[in-house]
TrEMBL record:
Cited Pfam families: Acetyltransf_1
Organism: Microvirga aerilata
PANTHER family documented for this protein: ACETYLTRANSFERASE, N-ACETYLTRANSFERASE DOMAIN-CONTAINING PROTEIN
Annotated TM spans: none
Full protein name: GNAT family N-acetyltransferase
Amino acid sequence: MSILDRFLNPPAPHIEPLGTEAAPRLAAIHASAFARPWSTLDFERLMAERGVIADGLFLGRSGKPSGFVLSRTVLDEAEILTVAIAPDARGKGHARPLLAHHLDALSRRGVSRVLLEVEEGNEPALALYRRLGFRETGRREGYYQKADGTRVSALTMALSL
């Protein structure tokens, strides 16, 4: 492959499992997406737990993930703990294949039901989850604290695999 070909034909986005070595990058992405970000240590501890699964989205030739999804499994259920895409990769359709890949991996592990919580009013996330088949199952009033100190409800959602 020539140098010109490398610039004109970058590698396709791909998804790979992540280990604790990715924790600093995940913390940075998380901080760009949430008012109450998790630290590198939070990610290291979570990812070291049995039953926690992390998948990363890689774009171009970068060895650093541009997005990720993190779930915890218990028996035949999983909870998606967090999903985030780096600011420069948002709005480009990367979250859907990332989540679809992750849900497939959960299914192959024997998971039959996936749960998550999402901030009410986060329309891009709600639209994505609904397109993937998640259904609203409940609401937690004032669950999330925003950067300005106000509180907003969480919607709980579930998907049968």
